[in-house]
From TrEMBL:
SMART domains: S_TKc
Domain of life of the native organism: Bacteria
Annotated InterPro entries: Kinase-like_dom_sf, Prot_kinase_dom, Ser/Thr_Kinases-Pseudokinases
Species assigned in the record: Stigmatella aurantiaca (strain DW4/3-1)
Keywords: Kinase, Transferase
Residues in Protein kinase domain copies: 1-232
Molecular function in Gene Ontology: ATP binding; protein serine/threonine kinase activity
Stated name of the protein: Protein kinase
């Protein structure tokens, strides 16, 4: 049996929990041609991915607290069985039709105590946006050591739960890490306070618990059982504000946050090296297999490039001068089906590559852009649509250091 398949089945066999689908059977089926196919038989659960559900169903802070508590309970059971999920995100949480129950699914990236190592990269499995701070710092510290291996633990799952909760209520990811000069040398820290209440109208208790789950120090997050208890208690004890439907704040506030994404992404990718960073940019945009965000994306028509070296004009009839001004419905960021969308900016972002662009890039409005070859709209967060294709801004490489540490 495929070792990953076998490991997932073994982890599921250790779990019996109302918020994890039951493993009913496993084995190998041999086709008439003699080809072996591993299989598992799972409990059938019907549900909608969490972020998609959030787009279609208004929900309150109290409702969110209850759903997140169920995911935390499923994680607590996983950890008690000696396992880790390692890919907690909205796509892997299904919400029942009545919105009262969730299931944590897809343990394909999971592992358990005593399992043999299958990943030979320094970074953990799972989805990049949900990696914990300690995982990112490990990757930076051992960026030149191909044999290094990050061992994800329960604290990583709790961190990912916090990222998922933040995106659930705000529609965007938490602020990225930035490079800072520290006493021990260069390191990566949060330059912005985690404040979901600035992005959306959420209850203070929910905002505080989200901050706790994404705390820099793993010991400050609490284990999954403690987080579940805190979420359940908050759902019961929160005041009337917690019963109000969560709404997003003004488009200016959200656009300001999105405007920092490229700068933070650029810094965060430096430790991977720029060829890898460009590849990961493509992975980042397409890695979440249907995590489509929470707001509508509107395609922007642009004049095609006629010959190499000619810049393209990204102006549209409704485009305003600000690079990050939203286009379309004057209500701005309303919860609809689709994803976060910004018009193609009139000028390059800070940190974006300027012409001459590489052969594999497209020049638009003085900036260089990557076309995501296998991705079609809806593109997901932080990408731009042009002629039914998805694009990411190309990061410019950092300036070389004037001196090096011995």
């Amino acid at each position: 049996m495929d070792p990953r398949f076998e490991r997932e089945a073994e982890l599921l066999s250790r779990l019996t929990h109302p918020h994890v689908p039951k493993l009913l059977d496993q084995g190998i089926w041999v086709s008439p041609e003699g080809v072996s196919f591993p299989y598992v038989v799972m409990e059938w659960v019907e549900g909608m991915p969490l972020y998609e559900w959030a787009v279609r169903h208004p929900f309150s802070s109290r409702h969110a607290l209850g759903l997140l508590a169920q995911v935390a309970r499923a994680l607590a059971a996983t950890h008690a069985a000696g396992g880790v999920h390692r890919d907690v995100k909205g796509d892997n949480v299904l919400v029942s039709a009545d919105g009262t129950k969730v299931f944590l699914v897809d343990f394909g990236s999971g592992s358990y105590s005593g399992a043999r190592r299958l990943t030979w990269r320094p970074e953990p499995p799972g989805t990049f946006q949900y990696w914990s701070i300690e995982a990112l710092r490990f990757r930076w510290r051992f960026r030149h050591d191909a044999t290094a291996h990050y061992e994800a633990g329960p604290a990583d799952d709790v961190y990912a739960l916090g990222v998922m909760a933040y995106r659930l209520v705000t529609g965007v990811y938490p602020p990225p890490l930035e490079s800072k000069a520290l006493d021990a040398g260069e390191g990566y820290v949060r330059s912005q306070r985690i404040a979901p209440e600035k992005q959306a109208h959420v209850s203070p208790k929910l905002a505080a618990l989200i901050r706790q789950m994404v705390a820099e120090k793993p010991s400050m997050r609490g284990n999954a059982a403690e987080v579940a208890h805190a979420l359940e208690s908050a759902a019961k004890d929160a005041g009337r504000q917690a019963s109000r439907v969560i709404t997003r704040r003004s488009k200016q506030a959200v656009a300001s946050t999105l405007g920092t994404r490229l700068r933070g992404w650029r810094v965060g990718m430096m430790w991977l090296g720029w060829p890898t960073a460009a590849a990961l940019a493509v992975l980042w945009a397409g890695s979440e297999r249907g995590e489509s965000g929470t707001w509508e994306r509107r395609p922007v028509e642009m004049v095609p490039r006629k010959r190499p070296g000619d810049a393209e004009d990204g102006r549209t009839s409704g485009l305003v001068s600000a690079a990050l001004t939203l286009h379309g419905d004057p209500k701005g960021l309303e919860a609809t089906t689709g994803a976060v969308s910004l018009d193609m900016p009139m000028k390059p972002f800070s940190g974006q590559r300027r012409p001459p662009c590489k052969e594999y890039e497209v020049e638009v409005n003085g900036g260089c852009w990557h076309a995501l070859q296998d991705k079609r709209p809806p593109c997901g967060e932080e990408t731009y649509v042009w002629k039914n294709r998805c694009y990411l801004p190309s990061p410019s490489p950092p300036r070389p250091a004037t001196s090096e540490s011995p």
